[in-house]
């Protein structure tokens, strides 16, 4: 589904060159859920932009066998309609679908993301979790086979995290390819078929989630979620 081969990307900054990605290679199979972990600035979002075609790699290439949908960390920036119904319809309309096709796609997407009851609610007043579900609903309406979520748990409370994870489970069940970019691996790693870690622009781990938890993740500035909590003194980072 996605083949990433020797991808490198460098940006010019006021302080000189910043190599965001350094010779990154791995594959994502159709229907897989892949968690790409890494601290802020590790290159996750840059890689996402290259996979989706928003950025070009300086070296290497990315091959995809289907269109890619993105859910940005600030999902509200993707909202174009006044209501969820209007927002979800935006993509199919631009694709030139018929009115009946659009209506069916919108209703299906609303139902699958649990937003039917808020279909005509002001989109700007949705909760953080609902806004992320709305962004995913837009991808579902256009029947995109690959969905990438960039830091999907940012600024969400417990209920919001559970809502997003429930949606990810549903996407997996439907055979969608799901890529989750996050430094909060403890919230979603059990959903993954593959775990990849980026550190300072390089791929430093690729394998199963179980294998990843046996490594010293702290070396890459990721807290291992299997750290024991047995008393109050443990409840601090």
Written description of the protein model:
The radius of gyration is 18 Å and the shape is globular. It is α/β, with parallel strands linked by helices. Helix 2 packs across helix 3 and helix 2 packs parallel to helix 4 (about 130-140). It is built from six helices and nine strands, in the order βββαββαααβαβββα. A hairpin with a 2-residue loop joins strand 1 and strand 2 (about 15-30). Helices cover about 30% and strands about 25% of the residues. The strands form two sheets. Strands 5-6-7-3-8-9 form a six-stranded mixed β-sheet, sandwiched between helices. A three-stranded antiparallel β-sheet has the order 2-1-4.
Give a brief outline of the structure.
The chain has 237 residues and is of the alpha/beta class. The protein has helices at residues 44-51, 84-94, 99-112, 128-141, 158-173, 209-213, and strands at residues 2-13, 16-28, 33-37, 59-64, 68-71, 146-150, 177-182, 194-199, 202-207. Strands 5-6-7-3-8-9 form a 6-stranded mixed β-sheet, sandwiched between helices. A 3-stranded antiparallel β-sheet has the order 2-1-4.
SSE topology:
Elements: E1 2-13, E2 16-28, E3 33-37, H1 44-51, E4 59-64, E5 68-71, H2 84-94, H3 99-112, H4 128-141, E6 146-150, H5 158-173, E7 177-182, E8 194-199, E9 202-207, H6 209-213
Parallel strand pairs: 3-7, 3-8, 5-6, 6-7
Antiparallel strand pairs: 1-2, 1-4, 8-9
């Amino acid at each position: 589904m996605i083949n990433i081969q020797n991808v490198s990307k460098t940006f010019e900054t006021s302080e000189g060159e910043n190599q965001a990605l350094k010779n990154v290679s791995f594959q994502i199979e159709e229907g897989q859920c892949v968690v790409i972990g890494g601290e802020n600035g590790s290159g996750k979002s840059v890689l996402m932009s290259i996979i989706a075609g928003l950025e070009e790699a300086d070296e290497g290439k990315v091959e995809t066998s289907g269109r890619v949908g993105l859910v940005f960390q600030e999902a509200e920036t993707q909202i174009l309609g006044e209501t969820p119904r209007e927002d979800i319809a935006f993509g199919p309309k631009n694709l030139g679908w018929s009115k009946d096709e659009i209506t069916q796609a919108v209703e299906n997407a609303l139902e699958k993301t649990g937003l039917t009851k808020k279909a005509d609610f002001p989109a700007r007043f949705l909760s953080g979790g609902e806004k992320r579900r709305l962004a995913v609903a837009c991808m579902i309406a256009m029947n995109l086979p690959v969905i990438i979520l960039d830091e999907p748990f940012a600024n969400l409370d417990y209920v919001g995290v559970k809502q997003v994870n429930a949606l990810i489970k549903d996407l997996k069940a439907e055979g969608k390819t799901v890529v989750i970019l996050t430094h909060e691996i403890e919230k979603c790693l059990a959903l993954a078929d593959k775990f990849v870690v980026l550190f300072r622009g390089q791929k430093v781990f690729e394998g199963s989630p179980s294998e990843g938890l046996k490594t010293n993740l702290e070396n890459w500035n990721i807290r291992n979620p299997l750290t024991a909590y047995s008393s109050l003194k443990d409840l601090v980072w």
